[in-house]
Structure formats: structure tokens, C-alpha cells
Amino acid sequence: MAGGTLPATNATAPHPDSPPRIPAGLLPRRVAVAMDGNGRWARERGLSRSEGHRAGAGRLPELARAALEVGVEQVLVYGFSTENWRRSPQEVSGLMRLAGQALGAQRAELHAMGVRVRWSGRPGRLWKGVIGELRATEELTRDNQRLTLDLCVNYGGQAELVDAVAAIARQVGAGTLRPEAVDEAVVARHLYQGDSGDVELFLRPSGERRTSNFLPWQLAHAELVFMEVLWPDFERRHLWEAVQIYADRHKRRGG
Ligand code: FPP
Predict the structure, then answer these.
(1) In this predicted structure, what is the pLDDT of residue 14?
(2) Packing angle, helices 89-112 and 60-70, rounded to 10
């Protein structure tokens, strides 16, 4: 990962704390984050759920900066799950509108930070405008190398495995892949991001202790860290704390 001074961003106030210095061998390279607790954050303030999601979406650049500053290479965030379609039509359309707006508003800032953004998920029922913003963000940031930010939008872990199995079955059916040749590496190559390795740290704020169909394959060996903070209150120090917890656990296990 390239070094250098981070550009200032207007989305995050200067933070008094600095990231922990973690030896490279104890640093998680890939971190998954479930952006949970927007609804509760809004309810506590007498606001609508959409306002909670809006506040939550505003934390994405903070998360990216936190990752960059501590040296994490890849962050995967759960933006909209295949289960989220079951929410009320108002909440779903609010989330679709917000996702498009947030991407449009944050694209340049993420690009200036050197973040490569990728989308993982099914097109399916996703609004065309959201797909357009996702594609435009991918296109703008494709050559960036400081951090990869995987936005999981209309993503489901079981759906990802189904899609991988179907693609593999098509090749077996066509005679271009022998069933005996199907192993972990072949399955991994057919996930949405074929180059993704294991995710080492899963962070879920809001006090919930579930992985909720997020990255079941990639999280097979991950450390799970649960925090009480609600996502809209998320600050850089929360990621740093989770990374420190990961490093401490890893050290106890002998590195
Ligand atoms: C979970 O909180 C959060 C979501 C279902 C949506 C998260 C989405 C965003 C923060 C914006 C997406 C932005 C982009 C760019 C993809 P919850 O509603 O389940 O909270 P609760 O458990 O407190 O009700």
C-alpha cells in the first residue's frame, strides 16, 4: 500500500486520537463491517428511520479514513442485503434514493483518498440509478491502490454461493470443468470478487451478535468483534479498537 499524507476531507472533523501501531503480522488485512443500528439511532432522537440511514451513510468516508490510517487493505461493508427488500416500501425506496445520492456525493472524496470502490451483489431489483452510481464509482476509482472498499449492495451471502454454484454447474454441464476439479479455490474464484481471500475481522456495531448472511464463505476463519456503538455514531477509533482486539487475540494464539 502506498504511503504519504492523507488528503483532508470535509466529511470528518480532525480526530484527536491516532491509530494504534500494530505490527504488520498482527494487522487484519481484510475487514468486514455491518453498518447496523441506524434505525435505533433515529428512534432515540425522534427521527425517521430514513434519517438514521442518512446519518449512517455519512460515516462511510470516516470508515475508509480509519482503515487507511491503520493500514487495513480492504474493507467490505453491508449496504443493503437481499433480506432488506422485506422492509416497508417507504424504507426501501428511501434506502435506494440514499444509496444513489451518497455514492454521487462521496465518490470524489473516496477517489481523492485513493480508495478503489467495488460493488458486490445482484442487479436484480436494484434501482437502475443505484446501479449507475455504483458503476460510475467503480469506473472512477478502478486504478486506486491505497484501499479497496467493497460495497455489498443487494448482497446476500447465500445468494452469492448460489450464484457461484450455478456458474460452476454451467461449466461442468458444458464439459469445460471436471467435477473432481471443483475445490475451495474454484469456488472462491466464482464469488462476486474472485480475488477475495479470507476476511480476518468482522465488526458489527449496535450490540447485535449475528453475521446475518454477510460473507459466510469469506468469514469462515474471521475474528468476530461486536460493539455497542450505533453505526451513525461510528468514529475512526471504533475501527482502531476492533483492530487492536483482533491483534491481541491473534497474539494470544501465537500470531
Ligand atoms: C442497518 O440498520 C442498516 C441498513 C439496513 C442500511 C445501511 C445502509 C446505509 C448506511 C446507507 C447505504 C449507503 C451506500 C453508499 C450503499 P437498521 O436499519 O437495521 O438499524 P436498526 O437495527 O437499529 O433498526
Answers:
(1) 43
(2) 40
